[in-house]
Design goal:
Layout lengths: L1 H19 L6 H14 L8 H18 L3 H6 L2 H4 L19
Helix pairs in contact: 1-2, 1-3
Length: about 100
């Protein structure tokens, strides 16, 4: 239980850090939504299938936020990942956050 709660805390922190660099006018709204969602669900049982599904969605969201992280863009392949190059691209998954 302790290792899973530690893992969730790390997920929470990574989400907030990635959100802080997300290039959007609504970045702080997203930041607050992440905080509120974790706060509302802090008493949930981590072994519950519903909770596991929410954790999977959070990891998907983290992956999408990190696609825009400039540190990762610069450290990837220079031709595709350089934010100063006019030819870089980001591919998003269709319907990444399904409705419950």
């Amino acid at each position: 239980m302790a290792s899973q709660s530690t893992e969730l805390l790390h997920l929470y922190r990574r989400l907030l850090r990635s959100c802080a660099t997300y290039p959007s006018k609504n970045r702080w709204g997203i930041y607050e939504a992440i905080r509120e969602e974790f706060r509302d669900n802090r008493a949930m049982n981590p072994d519950d299938p519903k909770t596991q599904k929410q954790i999977q969605v959070a990891y998907k969201g983290l992956g999408q936020l990190r696609m825009y992280d400039t540190v990762q863009l610069v450290s990837t392949d220079r031709s595709k990942g350089n934010p100063e190059s006019p030819n870089w691209e980001v591919t998003l998954e269709q319907n990444p956050m399904p409705k419950p």
